Automatic annotation (TrEMBL):
InterPro entries: TrbL_Firmicutes (IPR045798)
Listed transmembrane segments: 67-89, 101-121, 141-166, 202-226, 263-284, 311-329
Origin superkingdom: Bacteria
Keywords linked to the UniProt accession: Membrane, Transmembrane, Transmembrane helix
Lineage of source species: Bacteria, Bacillati, Bacillota, Clostridia, Eubacteriales
Protein name: Conjugal transfer protein TrbL
A Pfam family recorded for this sequence: TrbL_2
Length: 341
């Protein structure tokens, strides 16, 4: 007896169902519906995600680079160096303090030193009289009187003399003041070509921008500290100027007074050197690798195949920033070398 298996019965039922007219009518509808369903472009999603990441990274880098330009522009600001001797700190408060100390404390001390000088000269004249048993020569009396009048005038007017010396060197510094092209520098993302960028290049763009911002921060702090220290030094030397000027009367201490004048001139000349460095900085940067205001030059860090040359240019800018820092720190030493002190 030939019995059919359950498996053969199941296959027969499936064939009978698929051959029915209703099922055959459903097939075209199913094919049409599948054509209406949109195909998902997975490659397009990844491209959009990559472009978004690159744009986000470039925004971070632009923040760092704009901070660098702002800090360097502030470091190159000469307003704290060039100006009236009475307003080196923006107002005359510190100047009034130095002026008060000069008139109430230091001038009496200078006059005391001058009195000691006159006493020493009188002792020398009296010793000469005792040795020769003759009256002092007229020229000795005249010399003593002229010396007293001269040094008394130097002590009383020492602050005006120091201010006049500063003004002459300030004229030299003012001649170097010009428009700083770095103050208003800023990157514009519209100049960036996203099609040429890569994620690795954008990472380099961020790293170089952060390092440049750090260097700019150091340059700003150093320039501010050097300018403020120079201002304090000038005011302190002006306030205590009667003491070294009174020492000019002694043969033994005359070099101390001359050294004071040379050191004050060096401090004033240091300001001119600092302004010269700040004025020359944008030109040095431009000569190394083009203007840093050209955003397309910096954005080339993000482009494939172009970042190598651009890295060299940016490193040149950073090296120039270090040069500015070193020059500001050594401006006082350079001024003393120029004056031979």
């Amino acid at each position: 007896m030939n019995e059919k298996t359950p498996k053969s019965n199941l296959m027969k039922r499936i064939r009978n169902f698929m051959l029915k007219p209703k099922f055959m009518a459903v097939i075209p509808l199913a094919l049409t519906g599948s054509m209406l369903i949109p195909n998902v472009a997975y490659a397009g999603i990844f491209d959009d995600l990559s472009n978004w990441v690159e744009g986000f990274m470039v925004d971070i880098g632009i923040t760092f680079w704009n901070a660098y330009f702002g800090l360097i522009g502030s470091a190159s600001d000469t307003s704290t160096i060039v100006g009236s001797f009475t307003t080196l700190f923006g107002n005359d408060s510190v100047w009034n303090l130095a002026k008060t100390a000069h008139s109430t404390v230091v001038i009496p001390l200078g006059e005391s030193i001058l009195a000691l000088f006159m006493l020493v000269q009188l002792v020398k004249i009296s010793q000469r009289i005792d040795a020769t048993a003759t009256l002092p020569a007229v020229k000795d009396i005249v010399f003593l009187a002229v010396a007293y009048v001269l040094f008394h005038w130097l002590i009383i007017n020492s602050l005006d003399i120091i201010s006049a010396i500063y003004s002459e060197f300030n004229k030299i510094a003012s001649s170097f003041v010009g428009e700083n092209s770095l103050v208003s520098s800023a990157l514009d993302k519209a100049q960036w070509n996203a099609d040429q960028a890569s994620i690795g290049g954008c990472a380099l763009f961020i790293a170089m921008g952060f390092f440049s911002m750090f260097v700019g921060f150091i340059a700003y702090v150093v320039s501010l500290v050097v300018a403020l220290a120079r201002g304090i030094q000038l005011y302190a030397m002006a306030a205590f100027s009667p003491i070294p000027l009174s020492l000019l009367g002694f043969d033994e201490t005359r070099q101390m007074g001359i050294g004071f004048l040379k050191n004050f001139c060096a401090a004033a000349l240091a300001g001119a050197i600092m302004v010269f460095l700040m004025a020359a900085y944008p030109f040095i940067v431009t000569s190394i690798g083009g203007s840093p205001t050209a955003g397309n030059t910096i954005f080339a860090l993000t482009y494939e195949g172009e970042f190598i040359d651009t890295v060299g240019i940016v490193l040149g800018w950073i090296a120039t920033s270090f040069m500015l820092i070193i020059g500001l720190v050594k401006s006082g030493a350079w001024a003393r070398e120029i004056l031979g002190s």
